[in-house]
Structure prediction request, 228 residues.
Amino acid sequence: MSSTEDYAKRFAGTAGEWMLSVQTQAIDDLLRDVGGGTILDVGGGHAQVTPHLMAQGREVTALVSCEEAAARLNRVSGGTAPYVLGSVEQLEQPDHSYDIVIAMRMMAHVADWELFLASACRVARKAVIVDFPLVSGIHRLYPLLFGLKKAIETDTRTYTRLPHKAVTTAFRDNGFDPDAHVGQFVVPMAFHRFIKNVPISRASEAIFSPFASRMGNPVIIRAQRLPK
Prediction:
C-alpha cells in the first residue's frame, strides 16, 4: 500500500521531515499515558513509526503485506526492525496478541475501515492508535480541491474521509474508549508541501492552533480497552 519508495518521497525534504515530526510527536504524546508493552505497527513498511519506536527502546513489530513492502523498512533500520507478513486490511493476529496496535495512513485506504478497526481492537490488549482524514473545515471542499491537490502532489490518490463521530462510535462498539486525539494540520498538507518553507508552515499552524482539536487533519486518535 503506502510503503513504497515513491510514497516516502512525499515526505522528503525539510517540509516532509517537519510534517513527520508532527506525527511522531503526536504518537509519543498518545503513548505516554498507555505505558509500555508490545506494539504492532500495521503497514509499517513505510518506516515512519517502527524505527522511531525502536530508538526509544520499545518492543515493536511491523506488519507488512509482503517481503517487497518491507524493503524500505529494512533499508532504514539496517535490517534490524522486526516484522511479520500478513494482511494489513483485516488483521489475522490472535486475540490480544499485542498490547498496542498503531496504524498510520491505513484507515483512509482500506476497503472496509470498520472491519479494519474491529480487527485492530481484537488484536490489542490495551490500546489502539490510528489516524484518518476528517470531514471538517476546508476538507469539506475535498471534491472541489482534489484537482488542485493532484496538481501540487502529482502522486496523490483518492482517499476516504471519515466523520469523527463514526470512528469514536466504532471504537465503543468494539469495547474501546476513544479518550484522546490530536488534529495534526489545520492548513492542508498540500499547502505545506507546495511552499516548502517550514517557518511559514509552523507559523500558519500556530495561528490556527485553536481550531486544531476540532478541524486538524489527519486526526490521530487513541482508544483504550474498557474494563469488563
Summary: The mean pLDDT is 88. Residues 5-223 form a domain with the Rossmann fold fold (CATH 3.40.50.150). The first helix runs from residue 5 to 8.
